[in-house]
Amino acid sequence: MSLLALKDLFARHRARATGLWRLGQEPGRTVFMEAGDIVFASSTHPLDRLTHLLVERGKITQAQLDYALTNLNPGMSIGKNLIEMGFITQRDLLDVARAQVERVVWASIATPEVVPAFEAKELDATTVRLPFDTPAMLLASVLNLQDRERVLEELGPLNQVVVLEGRRHQELALPADLVRLPGLLDGSRTLLELSREASVEPFRLGAFILFLREVGWARLLELPPLDRRALERALDPAEPALTPALPEPPPVAQPSLFAEIHASQRPTTNLEHLSEALDELGPDDELDDIPQTVPMPPDPEPEPALPIHHEASGSTEFQEPPPPAESGPEPPSRRRPLILLGLLVLALVGAIWFGLRQAARSRRATPAPPANLEPVAPAAKPLPSAPEPAKPAPALEPEKKVEAEAPRTPTLNPDPAPAPIPAPISAQKPGPAPTPSRADRLQTILKGDLSQALAQGALQRKALQGRWTLRLEIACQGATLQHAAELLKGQDPDLFLVPMTLRDGRTCYQVFLGSFGSEAAAREAARRLPPLFHAEGNRPKPFRVAQIADRQ
């Protein structure tokens, strides 16, 4: 890789130079620059030629190229000759010309050890000027470099930090793996930390940072060298500090057996103060015998305590607090009626709720009376007593129940028995739509109804899974589709359309013919097509129906 060529081309772009940038003599490559932007490029290398790219990208075949070179019009370029012969379109020529310029730039940057030359001059009016995003082209060129050692050597050590300058980097459409990087370039992370935090391979990160530096959108600052010993001490875990050993207790002299016997004869508690107090007591201090009180059995039910005002006239001594046993919970005999009463209330509430719910269900289940019943005469008197609720008739004899109850109410119109509710008929799933015939599809295309033709084509495509078909052409205008159908109208063709989205976002239509059992049968049918389907660069191509593409 020639870093001289890379750095010189970036320097011309930063200086907004205008002229011809050349690399190599023969064969050589030339880049046309205007105000620092790349507008065109040419090359004498065989792999960079326009004709080679046309064949490589499948725009024309080698046989068509040989025919065009044999019958070349010397007054026109090779591109215009191919357009006049109908092999390519103007759009194909423009796409391949842009690809040629990108290949020349990429190859120039990747050429090893060649010194470039620049001729500053104004470009001629006849020079083709193609619209390019020059920073995006240069970024793609740098990311495509393969010499890992040279790129990292030119970039420098990985302990550098990156500081952005300006906001031009926001105009670039970065690849998915580099989208997070601009937000991390705040000068606080080294290249190695950026690679680890953004999960980007170091070589690809280095190529991107090299582009930012050479295009003038960032600066690299190297951190001061680190003390390797201090770094090792910081990385190695510190050894745990050992606590000093506790001092050993001094040896205690063990008493002899005789000393222990003498010590056991001395009391361990000092009782001298008690003996002195007993000596001072006289006969007057003696107390009478205290009668022993027999504890009374507790009352079965403690009486409630008297109010406070009744006790005010008594002794002024403080009343002793009641025993803790009296302040406990009530005996179970008093709580049992309350529990039973609560359970009874809950059962009553549940029964009422259940009855209301059953009544609501019966009202919802009773069918509405028919609308054509005759109204009851207003002069009719009500019955003296409410009629008894009708008991449910047995399931086996419904007709006898109706006959027995009919004569009971002669003055009222009896309600007819509710009509049996028919079982719901399960909705039948509609069957698959029938595949339109070839005559219907032909007439739809001839009428120009593209939406109906696409719907019919989708059904036909679904029906032909596993078969082969023949693509006649790709057309974007309805008139072209009608013209193709007119050419095959007399042969009762089996035509159907499939949409295709082109690279520029337009939606065009693929015209397919027939259903074949193999690719060879489809190619044989292509040879029998009218000559117009083989002219103007058209190439009928067989496809397996399951592999028909919807996007270019």
From TrEMBL:
<feature type="compositionally biased region" description="Pro residues">
    <location>
        <begin position="320"/>
        <end position="331"/>
    </location>
</feature>
<dbReference type="Pfam" id="PF14332">
    <property type="entry name" value="DUF4388"/>
</dbReference>
<feature type="transmembrane region" description="Helical">
    <location>
        <begin position="338"/>
        <end position="356"/>
    </location>
</feature>
<dbReference type="InterPro" id="IPR037257">
    <property type="entry name" value="T2SS_E_N_sf"/>
</dbReference>
<feature type="region of interest" description="Disordered">
    <location>
        <begin position="365"/>
        <end position="439"/>
    </location>
</feature>
<feature type="compositionally biased region" description="Basic and acidic residues">
    <location>
        <begin position="397"/>
        <end position="406"/>
    </location>
</feature>
<feature type="domain" description="PatA-like N-terminal">
    <location>
        <begin position="13"/>
        <end position="140"/>
    </location>
</feature>
<feature type="compositionally biased region" description="Pro residues">
    <location>
        <begin position="413"/>
        <end position="423"/>
    </location>
</feature>
<keyword id="KW-0812">Transmembrane</keyword>
<protein>
    <recommendedName>
        <fullName>PatA-like N-terminal domain-containing protein</fullName>
    </recommendedName>
</protein>
<keyword id="KW-0472">Membrane</keyword>
<feature type="compositionally biased region" description="Pro residues">
    <location>
        <begin position="294"/>
        <end position="305"/>
    </location>
</feature>
<feature type="region of interest" description="Disordered">
    <location>
        <begin position="281"/>
        <end position="333"/>
    </location>
</feature>
<dbReference type="InterPro" id="IPR025497">
    <property type="entry name" value="PatA-like_N"/>
</dbReference>
<keyword id="KW-1133">Transmembrane helix</keyword>
